[in-house]
Amino acid sequence: MVLIIDSGLLNKCGCGSSEYWFSYIDYSVKNIRDLDTGNKPDDMGQTAYFVSIGLIPFITISNEEIIRAFLRERANKKLKAILENINGDKFIEAFWKYFNAYPELHDGLNEFSSEYSKKRVAAWCEENNISYRIEA
Hints:
Layout: E1 3-5, H1 7-10, E2 20-23, E3 28-31, H2 46-52, E4 55-57, H3 63-74, H4 77-83, H5 88-99, H6 109-127, E5 132-134
Helix pairs in contact: 3-6
């Protein structure tokens, strides 16, 4: 079995590691709301139960992580210096303010995001001994 890394799977990376879990049993990524916990022993926590049935939290890739990687690759030193000490929602807001003012940021953000996410998921698969294949 292999995990197919495609746009559908990449959409699950931004939703939080507590929402999506990977199954070693069928190599699928499942939403926590769809998992049956009826057989969970009363004295076992939910996370321990999921791990016991072959599930692990799926990777989370935040917008901030992607944009910071994009800036490392594309932005000039001045812009990097301005944004490097801003975190969280304030960082995202500041990025979009500068986005229109700096031409080097205009092209390729969506493509960069997709390629970056594919590489991060592939690395996560390798760390967790999961066979995978990247599809366009």
